[in-house]
Amino acid sequence: MDNQTLLQFFHWYYNEADKLWIKAAKEAENLAEMGITGIWLPPAYKANSGASSVGYDPYDLYDLGEFDQKDTLATKYGTKEEYQNAIKILQENGLIVIADIVFNHKAGGDELEKVMVRSVNPEDREEFTSEPFEIEAWTKFNFKGRAGQYSQFIWDKDCFSGIDWAEDLKETGIYSIQNIYGEGWEEVPSKELGNYDYLMYNDIEFRNPAVREELKRWGEWYVNNCGMKGFRLDAVKHIATDFLIEWLDHMNETFQTQFFVVAENWNIDNVFELEQYLEITKGRMQLFDSLLHHNLFIAGAEKEQYDLSKIFEGTLVQLQPLYTVTFVDNHDSQPLQALESYVEFWFRPLAYALILLREDGIPCIFYPDLYGATYKDEDKEEEMVEVSLVPLAKLPEMIHIRKELSYGLQRDYLDFPNCIGWTRAGIAEKVNSGIAVIMSNGEEGFKAMEMGLENVGKTMIDAMGNRNEKITIDEKGWAEFFCNAESVSVWTIV
Ligand code: CA
């Protein structure tokens, strides 16, 4: 089987003339040819901010751009039909589609209800700062625009464990909702802020069995209507893990398949929490390696001060290579976003070589690195600066090398603070496979590395076009490889 490569097919400020679903369908063939094997599409359902929503403030999971709700029929990305068509065309081209699932919260309730709550200390959510009292809150969702089509389920105050707005008091805060399903917050993976069950909007109450059943029915409806083969689970550290396990088992059993699942569990300082999560979820899902992203960010910022030989230290891909999706950046880390930590432009080719051309992990490419992006943040008046992210010229070639050539025994030379490298010896099934990668964050680099006896006498050139030498593998299977200052060279067999 060919190496897998995912593509996050959107960014926070996607604003091109083609709506995203249209663009995805148009690009399907090209992406498959390049070596992309899976496409992560953004949340497809109607969200509270209507036609401008990126999708992480979900309102109605059954409205995929079909009903006149939140002042729009289509979502930012297009209509339900366009979505279904994009998935069909992508999957006909051999790409698996990974749908983004936001289960932690709902936004934009239709009606007010009287709700009993307790205030909590935002910095320590286990500390209740009031006796129970009543507020009016937007906890009823009846989806008038959909009028019961596909599901009659009405969400109300028993479906939520917390909310951040008291309409009658005109007051924000974190309010723990009193209902019959449990005292206080749910048990969730993250112990940040005491208990990080509550993230934003109306926090879903998974202790309510009716909620669990409704979300399972919805999952069946979603796959029956759209046919996606994978899921990206949003914000899992804020969600009761037993619910996600129950939901995934239900989906795999119902469709007699193993959906590809990758979860977002953002964490930049404790890899053991991620390992623990993998242990509990027992192979049902992969996790994004936010720790490697963080190392890449620091490496880009510190330039030659950074010790490249330690780039994988403390990362998930080092400890759990079979359950890790690696990435350079995503829609949360891009410039102007909440978790902004964009890897510096000079380092991005090195970062992509580190995730694309090694044995471990499944890499996920970020949209702007292939297509570019130019945008402003209209919501931030003080930051009306225009951001321009240019595509990386050599990225398609690197993806293609991953698909065709990056196979076989890996020999590591992660042995010098400013210059590291590795080789892949190649396999018989892939013609001319086998590569040598060398990178430097300081001066020009050189390194003797072994390609193996099977490659004796072969000639290699730098597929990145940075170096003009031709390198010949000597009679012992070794050669000396080169790269420019602050650069990466990828040597391939000619
Ligand atoms: Ca939650």
Topology:
Blueprint (H helix, E strand, L loop, with lengths): L5 E3 L11 H15 L3 E4 L4 E2 L10 E3 L19 H13 L3 E6 L3 E2 L4 E11 L2 E5 L4 E8 L19 E7 L4 E7 L24 E3 L4 H18 L3 E4 L7 H14 L5 E4 L7 H11 L4 E3 L1 H13 L13 H4 L4 E4 L20 H9 L5 E5 H5 L1 E3 L11 E3 L5 H10 L5 E4 L5 E6 L10 E6 L4 E6 L8 E4 L8 E2 L5 E6 L3 E7 L1
Parallel strand pairs: 1-2, 1-17, 2-5, 5-13, 13-14, 14-15, 15-16, 16-17
Antiparallel strand pairs: 3-4, 6-12, 7-8, 7-9, 7-11, 10-11, 10-12, 18-19, 20-21, 21-22, 22-27, 23-26, 24-25, 24-27
Helix pairs in contact: 1-2, 3-4, 8-10
This protein binds calcium ion.
The site of calcium ion has 5 residues, from loops.
Structure report:
The protein is α/β, with parallel strands linked by helices. It folds into 3 domains: 6-103 and 209-403, Alpha-Beta Barrel (TIM Barrel), CATH 3.20.20; 106-204, Elongation Factor Tu (Ef-tu), domain 3 (Beta Barrel), CATH 2.40.30.140; 408-493, Golgi alpha-mannosidase II (Immunoglobulin-like, Sandwich), CATH 2.60.40.1180. 23% of the residues lie in helices and 26% in strands. It is built from 10 helices and 27 strands. The protein has helices spanning 20-34, 80-92, 209-226, 241-254, 271-281, 290-302, 316-319, 348-356, 367-371, 395-404; strands at 6-8, 38-41, 46-47, 58-60, 96-101, 105-106, 111-121, 124-128, 133-140, 160-166, 171-177, 202-204, 230-233, 260-263, 286-288, 324-327, 362-366, 373-375, 387-389, 410-413, 419-424, 435-440, 445-450, 459-462, 471-472, 478-483, 487-493. It has an 8-stranded parallel beta barrel with strand order 1-2-5-13-14-15-16-17. A hairpin with a 4-residue loop joins strand 10 (160-166) and strand 11 (171-177). Helix 1 (20-34) packs parallel to helix 2. It is elongated, with a radius of gyration of 24 Å. The mean pLDDT is 97. The structure holds calcium ion (CA). Residues 104, 197, 203, 238-239 line the site of calcium ion. Calcium ion binds next to loops.
